[in-house]
Design a protein that fits this description.
Blueprint (H helix, E strand, L loop, with lengths): L9 H18 L35 H4 L3 E4 L4 E4 H6 L9 H5 L14 H6 L2 H51 L18 H10 L8
Antiparallel strand pairs: 1-2
């Protein structure tokens, strides 16, 4: 009967919370030399001595090109999946070697779709994690683009106003005109020439024709 316990069962909620806690504990045990969520997969290539295992096989950095999600931990001499470590759903988390413990069965890493890297790349939870990773990259790229556009717009506006003030001040100085009058309100007849010139400049009027 336990197999058919509904989602409202206290036992199921307890087991779900326990699973999430277990996952957090397992993930915290991952090596420290793997890629963080805000960076990229850890893919060391040069200056690394990849040790051979008992079968005389070792990790090959050439696998990165075929499996962009693949990352290697020098600390543990094991392969991990960047996407599954960060994006695999809790409900699908099954303590996969590529997400927590690390994989080092180099002899079976390639050549068989039912083993090693090929098997992992076709797993449903991995495909879902890859989709979430791609979505995050798109959103991050969009935010960067928007931020860049906003920054450029702010720069252009500041440049516009600085140029306006500089040209108006130059105009007033050359013509020996007073910068301000007795009133601060632009609409007042005795507000001075400076604010009036700024308004005209903003409207595209050539102040040298005044």
């Amino acid at each position: 009967m336990d197999k058919y316990i509904t989602s409202k069962s206290p036992r199921v909620r307890s087991e779900t919370a326990s699973t999430s806690m277990d996952r957090s504990n397992e993930v915290s045990k991952c090596p420290n030399d793997l890629g963080m969520l805000t960076t990229f997969p850890a893919q060391p290539q040069t200056g690394i001595q990849f040790p051979k295992n008992s079968s005389g096989r070792k990790f090959s950095p050439m696998w990165y090109a075929r499996f962009p999600w693949l990352e290697y931990s020098v600390e543990r001499d094991a392969a991990f999946c960047y996407a599954c470590r960060h994006f695999v759903p809790d409900s699908s988390f099954n303590y996969d070697n590529f997400a927590v413990k690390g994989y080092n069965g180099w002899k079976r890493a390639l050549g068989d779709k039912n083993k090693g890297l090929e098997l992992h790349s076709h797993a449903a939870s991995h495909i879902d994690a890859m989709s979430k990773w791609e979505e995050r990259k798109r959103r991050t790229s969009s935010r960067s683009t928007v931020k860049e556009l906003v920054s450029n717009n702010v720069y252009e506006r500041r440049h516009y106003y600085v140029r306006a003030i500089a040209e108006v001040i130059y105009f007033l100085a050359v013509n020996e005109l007073s910068f301000r009058g007795d009133y601060d309100k632009i609409a007042h007849s005795e507000s001075g020439i400076l604010p009036i010139c700024l308004v005209l400049w903003h409207r595209g009027t050539n102040i040298y024709r005044i």
